[in-house]
Task: structure prediction
Amino acid sequence: MNENTVNLLEASIHQHCKVLRTPTISSQFARMADEAMREKQSHMGYLEVLLAAEVDEREHRTVQRRITEAHLPRMKTLEEFDFAQTPKVSAAQIRNLAEGGYIERAEPIVLIGECGTGKTHLATGLCVAACRQRKRVRFTTAAALVNELVEANHQNQVRRALSRWHRYEVLAIDEVGYVPLAEQGAEFLFQVIADRTERAALIITTNLPFSEWTQVFGNARLCKALVDRVTDRAHIIETGTESYRFRRTIESRQKKKLEGAKGK
Result:
């Protein structure tokens, strides 16, 4: 086969790939064909490897798109979490949850602990794990969620806004309890959570025990109903009271002092 014929065939394959939307095949078929000839692979063997490369790349792009759409505060994974610094948290339990069974069963996860104890990192890591399973995930703070719904209500768009939040298979609401909510905001948050009960997975982080949620939700009946829905079939994980971030800062300062003393 002369060079002109090869060039024409390659151009034709590139065009077919463009129509079929298979960019990985388009970029790798020639190189893989050369490798298949050197390794004396069969035609079917070559085709299988080429198709597998396209599938792998599509899955990678899907995961990356899910992570982008999740609006995570920072890219933090469970593999990066230091369980040695948070002995109250069971690594086995977290890894079991990361497998995604709670998503299929529409079970809530509640992370309770003081600031700096790893709640947001764990919630983010669980979201990343769900994205890797190609689930539709969204991360937000309680304040941001409420503000969006209040603004949508002012524009008579609250139903549309609520429907957007309902489409996610995993919804993580961070910082529940940090800011007291006005009555309307509390009602909107209740509506989002209530609509997901036994239908879709929910992850919540809070710095308050359930007995103190009345500080955030002024309506006692609404608060009771909310806690009832959040805790039903929930995985409740306590992260402790000692701030890992604060302890890390103190250790860093002590290390610098020691290094400074040695340098004198």
Remarks:
- The chain has two domains: 3-68, 71-248.
